Every structure is written in structure tokens, then in C-alpha cells.
Amino acid sequence: MAVINGLLGLAAAGSFWFCALVLAAQPQRAYGSNRGSFGQNKGLVAPPEAGICGSSVTVYGYKCQELEVTTQDGYILSLQRIPEGRVGGGENKRPPVLIQHGVLVDGMTWFLNSPEQNLPMILADNGFDVWIANTRGTRFSRRHTSLDPSQPAFWDWSWDELVTFDLPAIFDFVCGQTGQKIDYVGHSLGTLIALASFSEGKLGNQLKSAALLSPIAYLSHMTTALGVVAAKSFVGEITTLVGLSEFYPKGEPVQNFLNALCAYPGVDCYDLLSALTGINCCLNSSTVDLFLMNEPQSTSTKNMVHLSQTVRDGVVAKYNYGRPDYNVMHYGEARPPVYNLSNIPRDLPLFVSYGGRDALSDVRDVMLLLDDFKFHDVDKLSVQFIKDYAHADFIMGVNAKDIVYNQVVSFFKGQH
Ligand SMILES: *[C@@H]1O[C@H](CO)[C@@H](O)[C@H](O)[C@H]1NC(C)=O
Ligand SMILES: *[C@@H]1O[C@H](CO)[C@@H](O)[C@H](O)[C@H]1NC(C)=O
């Protein structure tokens, strides 16, 4: 395992400076008013008419295409393509990179910082052909060939379906358009679905390499008090509260649910972002404001229940229908089948970056994940540990370029 040691020092020094800066700006104030609630900004949140390209990309002088992909189970997903950097791309064939966000956010979450600081544009400026995924249910991916988001059937999926349908559809599409294998970047749930998919060999020869930021697979050491209480409640109460349909974080049932959780002893939701993701070292308060205006996004309640099962059961397995006979009906077995992460091809180039303060991707859980890679080819696995980083620093950290994204770029360039 090639550990990038030099970075640790760099990360610490960089974070110190930025933490001082961000602290001085008192970021707490910026979202302190969101006590126990994401809904405070309700009035401000209209889906940008211009879409992600129009609102966040072309305004900075980059080309950007809005595309759509239909999954085998009928979801119409929005996809953005930034084919080249700001200064153009010349005649060279640029390698495609697919960027997959996590749960409760969408593709726009990558664009909240300046073009010099955000991952898609840094990749585009480094000669990559960049594709941004938007998971089913998020604001630009709420169409279906026959269903409507107002119908519970539209929300009858968990991250199993992202593995079975979303990723393969997007990979097929990007490969079809570019005729090349794909470098993948995932954050959070975007790492879990990728790992599950790789373990089943689903993407086969369409995948070239993968960078996993804030990886989640095992979740049993999750330290966020809110997360733990939520996970326990999700498995039981939430389905009766919200029903197995849309999990809309800004809607009243979810707000009530959150308020109830925040009243639990030991759960401090004063700063909800920290309560969920850990103490992020390096966020810009203006960016956090933008984040709260644009996110969180909907997902399915079934997906949240499935994630909660992952927290509770400590295994990476398919959705548990809660009763042996139901599981038999779906899987032919009383227990949901496990995704065996040791089946991931040992020669798949992997870059894993995780943070010391990440409450969702806890260091002990990352160790469990890395243990699944103990037979991975030594020269195909790079691991980066960033002591001061928490979950959101990987997407919005003001110093993420220097600490993480430049490493991602070098990692991908090393595969070509
Ligand atoms: C924080 O965001 C504001 C507004 O986008 C920007 O002007 C400022 O330069 C950012 N600060 C850092 C350290 O990136
Ligand atoms: C997982 O896969 C590895 C490697 O293919 C195999 O040795 C191991 O027995 C599998 N574990 C389970 C629980 O199936």
C-alpha cells in the first residue's frame, strides 16, 4: 500500500492556516440560524432554471452540455459534461472522468467553490473530459418514463438500485459517447455504490480507475450522534412517520423527525452540518451558505433505511426486507446477500482519501474497508489520510485543491 506520507504534514499546515481564517469568519453564524433544521432557507431554494451548466459552469467560461440517461428501470437522470478546460482542449482525445456525489446532495455540490477550487473544473483544466452524475430523486433527476415523484412507486429503491441501474446506465452512456474507459471519482455514498458495483464486476471493462473520497462501506463506527440516533430510528420509526416514499429533507415530516432526533440527550444540532458530517476544518462560510441554499436534496426513505441497516448490521449487504419470508421472496434467501468487497479486481487502480475528523466515514470503518484490500496489488492502491478533514471538506474545502484534488489528478494521469 503506497501511503502518501508527505501529504500529512502539508495537510496539517494548510489546515491550520485555513482554520484560522474560517474561524475568524465565524462560519457558525452563517448557518447557526439553521438550528435543527435545514428548512430555514426554504424560500430561497428554487431549482435553477438554467440547470447546472447554466448556473454554475458556462458563467465561468467553460463549455458544458446538459444530457440525460434513462436507466433500465425507467429513471431519466440528468448528466452534465464539461468536455474541456477553460482554454480549450486542442485536438487531443481527453480521458473521461465521471464524478458521483453522495446522498442528500446533487451534482451542483461540486461547484459551490470558485472554479479554481472545485474538482470538476480542476479536472477539466487538467485535460480531462468531465461528466457529472445526478442521482435519481435529486432535483434534476426527478423524471421517469412512467412514474411521477408524487407516487410512492417512484421512491421504491435503495442504493442497491443505484448499483444495479444508475451506475451501469451512466457508464454505458459515457463509454458510448467517448469510446474510452472511465476514471471514476466518488464521494461518500458515491464510493459505496461504486465499491458494491466493482465487487459484482458490473462495470467490467468500462472502468479504468477509481478515486474514493471520504469512503463509506462499513458504517458501524459512525460517531455523529445525530447519525447514530437517526440510524436507529430509521430502521423502526421513520417508515411509519414518513412512509416508504420520498425523503424530502425540507418537508415537514422530515423536519419533525429531525427535530425529534435533535431533542435526544447528547445530540446537539445547533450546527447541523457538523452534527451530521463532523467538524469540517476548512469550509468557507459563503460556500456553506450556498450549500444550504442548494442542498439537501431528496432521496428515497428506503435508501435511508438501507443505509441505517448498514450502520446497524456492520455488513455491506443488500436491502433487508425485515422478514425472512420477504427476503426469500426477493433474494431466494432468508438474509440479504452480502456484497463481497474482496472480489474487487486486485489490479484495479484505486486512490482512497479519508479524513481524521470525518464522523460519517470513521477512521475505524475505513480501516475495515482497507482490510478488504489487503491482497490488492501493492502498486495499484494509494491511500491518503488527512488528519483535519471531515466529510464536507472533501467537496467544499477551500484547500481541497492543494490537498486532495491535485492528488486525484496525478493519480488519474498516472493511469494514462
Ligand atoms: C470564500 O467565498 C467567497 C465568496 O465566494 C470568496 O470571495 C472568498 O475568496 C472565499 N475564500 C476563500 C478562502 O476561498
Ligand atoms: C469473498 O471473496 C473472497 C475472494 O474472492 C473469498 O476468498 C471469500 O471467501 C469471500 N467471502 C465470502 C463471505 O463469501
List keywords for this structure.
single chain; 416 residues; alpha/beta; Rossmann fold; ten-stranded mixed beta sheet; two-stranded antiparallel sheet; 39% helix; binds 2-acetamido-2-deoxy-beta-D-glucopyranose
Set down the secondary structure blueprint.
Elements lengths: L1 E2 L2 H19 L2 H6 L18 H7 L7 E6 L4 E8 L13 E5 L18 H7 L3 E5 L9 E2 L14 H20 L3 E6 L1 H11 L7 E7 L11 H18 L3 E2 L4 H11 L9 H6 L7 H10 L4 E2 H13 L10 H8 L18 E6 L7 H10 L8 E6 L6 H4 L3 H14 L3
Parallel strand pairs: 1-12, 4-5, 4-7, 7-8, 8-11, 11-12
Antiparallel strand pairs: 2-3, 3-5, 3-6, 9-10
Helix pairs in contact: 5-6, 7-8, 7-11
Summarize the structure.
By secondary structure, this protein is α/β, with parallel strands linked by helices.
Largest beta-sheet details: 10 strands, mixed
The structure class reads alpha/beta
Bound molecules: 2-acetamido-2-deoxy-beta-D-glucopyranose
Looking at CATH, the homologous superfamily is: Alpha/Beta hydrolase fold, catalytic domain
- In CATH's first tier, which class applies? Alpha Beta
CATH topology: Rossmann fold
Order of helices and strands: EHHHEEEHEEHEHEHEHHHEHHEHEHH
Q: Which strand-content bin applies to the residues? A: 5-15%
**What is the end-to-end distance?**
20 Å
Helix tally equals 15
